[in-house]
Amino acid sequence: MPTIQAASIHPRRALKRLVLTVTVVALPLLAVGLSANSTTAQAPTGSRSGRQAMSDTLRVYYMGYAVGHEAWEMLAGDGGQRTLTSRLDYTDRGRRTRLRADMTIAGDWSARQLAITRVSDTSEVREAHVAIRGRSAIVDYRGRNDTVPVRPGVAAIAGATPMTQHLALVQHWLARGKPASLAVVPGGPTNEVNVAWRGRDTVQVAGSIMVLERYAVNGVVWGWESVWLDVQGRLAAFTTAGGGGLTLEGVRMELEALLPRLRASATRDRLGELANLSKPIRPVASGDVALVGATLIDGAGGTPIPDAVVVVSGGRIRAAGPAGSVVVPPNAQRVDVRGRTIVPGLWDMHTHMMQMEWAPVYLAAGVTTVRDMGNLTDFIVPFRAAVDSGRGLGPRMLLAGLIDGGGPNAFGAENAATPEEARVVVRRFHALGFVQMKLYSLLTPEVIAATIDEAHRLGMSVTGHVPTALSLTAAVDAGMDHIAHLSIRGDADSDSVRAQIAHLRARGTVLDPTVSWGELLSHSTQEPVSNFQPGVAHLPPVLAQRINAMGVSTIDPETAHQRFARTLAILRAVHEAGIPIVAGTDEGVPGFSVYREVELFTQFGMTPMQAIQAATVVGARAMGMADSLGTVEVGKLADLIVLDGNPLDRISNIRRVELVMKGGMLYRTRDIWQAIGFR
Ligand SMILES: [Zn+2]
Fold it and tell me: From ligand 1's centre to the CA of 584, what distance in Å?
């Protein structure tokens, strides 16, 4: 059995323990790729013109569901140079993604070349290419095609996937002596990423102890990701939320059973980062507070009150009305908000809070309540607890438990093939404090019936996609209380659409049409996102890059506008029929999509007042919480925002959130935006 050698990256104490317990090989850091086999990787071979090879495979999970693999191979060449090839192949809800990364890496793990290729049965499309030539890099990435100056020894990484890129990135950071930040291409000289060591997961695999070093990476995509390396410096696991997307994880095949354990460590890291970020942000007022002088739009629908006073104590609204009629208690901290407008805190009724960064972003945007429409249970439950307990800044989180029918095209970790399985899933969500179930596409009619029955029996409501097995009308007849996304198809003035709308109306169904999300996905890429979403100017560059790449490249702006107008026409009919519509973004542009949702609501016929209510009290009513939330009225929880401008005059003034109060704690939104890296 070979002996352990000290790799410079590992703290001495850990190494001592390794010497005693680990039966795998550890070679010095720079020899990774040349070492003998461990329990996991395949043995080195002497093939390929005498060069040694190492290979390994990770199982890929998307939204907690096993969907594919990433296989990589590293070959050692002359002068310590290596080539690393990685192939990611997974199928999400029937859509297959195949990406290949070809990396050439110097002995010190700096990049020589990186190519990311999207592969299909019929084509290979280059998505990114970087070639480092001394102090310059030739970059071909996301429409950029230029030569940029770089520091010698730069790292190359283009996005979260293929995941093996992160192996090279972390090794590069270690080889450079763990600097506070790393310059990377193709991000350009100003785009820097942060890598940090977060801890160590000691795990048992087939009777052997393995120590996995856990690193966090920030800035490859928006937000923190986790990377685990084993003592040989090889990739053991990886997790990313895709920078405002859905969670993708990779774990070495034989460590698969440890994924929940690793995920728990990553979750602790994320919540620690959230706590660190939140701690310096102090409320500008809390306890006994009086907001004095603003125009009050209480959200109940009545006439706005000019020169109003809102008195808050113990996290609740104690008085709200015209200055002359409300007594400000002598002990209350007076906050002068003359010239401003107070409206209730906003509700985003369709979120997937898959990374901690969402929480402060939402609060900064004035969103005080979100409904999460599908997540990793072992992330969202502790995440909610951290925010509820005040350890991290964020909105109130109402959770909907995602359930699908299983099989290769299913979505999410909780699947049910039988009514009995469905009831177990529902009970588990209920026990964890979920208030709603979210149905997904592949459920059978029998399982749908059992899910709805069990949910209703437990006092949970039911939302979701219309399962493929049912029509929209059959789904609401089966008991779905809400429908996610605009699921009405056809022309607004057709008999079929009229019949569907009448059916929803008769059943009292609530709709979250996620219309801003539809606009973002369906707009022509010839039209800049900033045309309809000025919020992109405020995003961290790496997030702006992702958002600006969204849309459809194959249609012109005029065609896209015509199609979108048809969507708005259906929504106009839905609204005119009196069906409750709530604001939901389905991620979109973090923080800013909720404003766009409200703006779009006025485009299909809501008055500004109705649009504000759709993003506040209508959501609270839909969730059965209007007795305590949703309006600025006496006795309710003190969730409100202070706008510099009146949204009744101009709906886009909803974007001008200066102060946000959640549960009586008043924050300056600018403080939170800055802490989370928005401009
Ligand atoms: Zn969604």
Answer: 9
